[in-house]
Amino acid sequence: MIFNDLREFIAFLEDKKELVRIKTEVDPILEVTEITDRISKKGGPALLFEKVKGSKIPLAINLFGSYQRMSWALGVNDFSTINQKFSSLLKVDLDLNLRRKLEALYDLYKLSASRPKEVKKAPSQEIVKEGDFSLFDYPILKCWPGDGGCFITLPLVITKDPESGKQNMGMYRMQVFDEKTTGMHWHTHHDGAVNYRKTAKLGKKLEVAVALGGDPVTIYSATAPLPYGIEELFFAGFFRGKPVEVVRAKTVDLLVPARAETILEGYVEGGEERIEGPFGDHTGYYSVAADYPVFHVTCITQRKNPIYPATIVGRPPMEDCYMGKATERIFLPFIKMQLPEIVDINLPVEGVFHNCALISIKKSYPMQARKVINAIWGLGQMMFTKFIFIFDEDVNVQDLSEVAWKAFNNVDPARDITVVEGLLDVLDHSSNKPIYGAKMGIDATKKWSEEGYQREWPAEIQMSAEIKKLVDKRWKEYGIE
């Protein structure tokens, strides 16, 4: 099922007994986070806080906080099938026959044909506020005690490349400074930051629109590390199987989701920065305060009775982990397109997605693991991966116990570990310098003589298939259970 907006998804979750309405008044300062964190850590339901102190607007949170809810959000019933929606775009095998090549070209056409559908009237513009408004009317959260203030945590930030005219939609936290200004926490490599720098060089203000809410696929798309040239709203339309409805913003030259709950319109001006943070981040640590651009809100449009969507991040597992695991599954075919020897990838939630990658490969020549390690570091946002472990194809990298057993037994530190220096994620606090430090690749595959191994690699202990079958057949006779 594909949902048209946030409230359709909320109604669906409530019908599935996956959402709880909380009618008791709660405080957006820390209390909501503590409640949600407890629920998130035990794999609990989505929450709809109907009475939030200081606001008349209900707050929805933890909507994507399980594998099942993340699957439903993306229009599938089983999390394991998520990647099938994107894999058809990447049929690049040179041995494809003509018919399958034509099918692949048609799939690419479908992506180009998923252009957002512009409408004249939109629920997100039922009410228009210019001048007389306050961001504090919304139940914006202060998540953790050490946070620098209240933060908008689930925004869809829309900007435009001044050269190509293409829109970008990313998700960057926004600290609320006062009634009409926020920080804009886009990291230097993000497309929003690129558009900002390009526009500043032209001596112009960068127009910005921020959508709060929308259909679940569009919300997810703002987090997706898409290949260059694919716009998020196009991707969302392809994934949905129908275009995203958009409407022209009231005061900026941008198209915004027509079925969002609220739209913030305004601008960011080159050279204007302000201290933003600290913020309790998805690493489980506070990211430090630093200078970031200031977003000036000049107009707010919204539904008559909007719902405010939010998320919290912190020590995993939390809601963002399931969004990250969806990204892992969706973009695995893209990685396989670049590196066809890869069998599977696991970005464990404990590694907060940019600190660790566990990869199994079909090894067919010596030192292939090192080739894969270096190729991964050259692949988009995978360049930030601090630890890469490579295993043979028979290793289930989704099983952390098996992974640890294989790595601890197969790795010789002097032979199998590669340490390089390069870019790290901005939020990595371990390195001596920001954004730059050491990364490690570990070859945990079975070693060949061509790789310098001078002994016979031991066989793994396994029971014979015949005995396993016998014991399976006689199990009830043993009276063990």
Helix and strand layout, with pairings?
Elements: H1 6-15, E1 19-22, H2 31-41, E2 46-49, E3 59-61, H3 67-73, H4 84-87, H5 98-112, E4 117-118, E5 127-130, E6 151-152, E7 155-160, E8 167-170, E9 174-175, E10 181-183, H6 191-201, E11 206-212, H7 216-221, H8 232-240, E12 245-248, E13 255-257, E14 262-276, E15 279-280, E16 286-287, E17 290-302, E18 308-310, H9 319-338, E19 342-346, E20 356-361, H10 368-377, E21 387-392, H11 400-410, H12 413-416, E22 417-423, E23 436-443, H13 465-474
Parallel strand pairs: 1-2, 3-18, 4-12, 20-21, 21-23
Antiparallel strand pairs: 2-3, 5-17, 6-9, 7-8, 7-11, 10-17, 11-14, 12-13, 14-17, 15-16, 19-20, 22-23
Protein architecture, described:
- With 481 residues, this protein is an alpha+beta fold.
- 27% of the residues lie in helices and 24% in strands.
- It contains 13 helices and 23 strands.
- The strands form six sheets. Strands 5, 7, 8, 10, 11, 14 and 17 form a seven-stranded antiparallel β-sheet that branches. A five-stranded mixed β-sheet has the order 19-20-21-23-22, with helices on both faces. Strands 1-2-3-18 form a four-stranded mixed β-sheet.
- The longest helix has 20 residues.
- The chain is globular, with a radius of gyration of 24 Å.
